[in-house]
Amino acid sequence: MTPIIRVINPNSNKHVTEEMSRALEPLRYSTGPRLECVTLEKGPMGIESQADVSKVEPMLAQLIQSDSSSSAFIIGCYSDPGLALCREITDRPVFGIAECAILTALTRGSSFGVISILPNSVERHIRHLRERLLHHRFAGDRALGLTVAQIQNDKMTFGRMKKIGTMLRDDDGADVIIMGCAGMAKYRAKLERILSVPVIDPTQAAASMAIGVVALSN
Q1: CATH architecture observed for domain 98-200
Q2: Is 8 within 8 Å of 63 (Cβ atoms)?
Q3: Residue 166's CB: how many other CB atoms inside 10 A?
Q4: Model confidence over 169-212: pLDDT tens digits?
Q5: Is 170 helix (H, G, I), strand (E, B) or coil?
Q6: For the chain, how far is it from start to end, CA to CA, in angstroms?
Q7: Shortest CA distance to 138 belongs to which of 85, 179, 102?
């Protein structure tokens, strides 16, 4: 039986779920685990504050507890909501996309920068880095000033991503860029071509790790 990796979008924006699934297409192959993306139907439209993070944590734990068919789970939000809780309530692997993106960035360069959605995201991201003792490899975190829903607008978003990415590279010294929201997935390849540094999509980073873990455990 083909193992399943369940990729959970903790917000209720199905467009974000669809973009995540499209970003994972290069990682789907006939003999590998199935990557299934699902939406947390009762979640907020975007995880944009600590209150949003706290709201979805028990929902994520309940969803994982009720799922008996998946071999591993990916929490598809750059705040990694409920990561510790979900790991506590299951013996199956649970991956947070922020943690995986940071670990991937450490293998691609010496200093990484993060493109966030809103200014209040920056403080939350920096706190997570300090908790993981990784702030010494951190170049900077700059916000687009856009909500999760707004970043789906290509004309509004990509120009800002290019500007912020250039600042992280040239002013802050980042030689790797992490996109700090799962909803940014469709911009990764184009942004990497323009900036000429590695650009990490966090959902792809988490799925790559999850595939390896699941494949080696079967």
Answers
A1: 3-Layer(aba) Sandwich (3.40)
A2: yes
A3: 13
A4: 999 999 999 999 988 999 999 999 999 999 999 999 999 999 99
A5: helix
A6: 10
A7: 102
